[in-house]
Structures are given as C-alpha cells and as structure tokens.
Design goal:
By secondary structure, the protein is an all-beta fold. The protein is about 0% helix and about 40% strand. It has no helices and 3 strands. The N and C termini lie far apart (about 45 Å).
Amino acid sequence: MVADQNSEGRHGSINGAKTILLVGTDTRPDQSPGDAVRSDSIIVVHVPADHSSAYLIAHTDLVSSS
C-alpha cells in the first residue's frame, strides 16, 4: 500500500492480491514478564487480485493449560 504524502485523512489504494498473517498472543496466568509470549491463534488471510472474496485458514490452540 502506497499513500500520497498529501493525502492526510484519506485512504491509500491497495492493488493486486494480498496475503496477510494474523497472530493472536496470549499470556499464561503463571507467566513471568521475561518469559517468551506464545501465539494462541494464527490466521492466514488471502485476498485475490480482484478483491471479490477473502479466504481464511485458521489454527487455534485448543489445548487447556489447566
């Protein structure tokens, strides 16, 4: 996405296909501040070049830590 520097308050245009990675993070109740943060959900979104639809592939951590 490329926005015009004089386009304050306006949206830039998005051309072509796009693939986006969404990652959800979650801290554990007993986690120390210095511990690594783990992702608990991952979604890959693909929007084809004609922007007519979006395809999502999701993985969610369903394992209970209790």
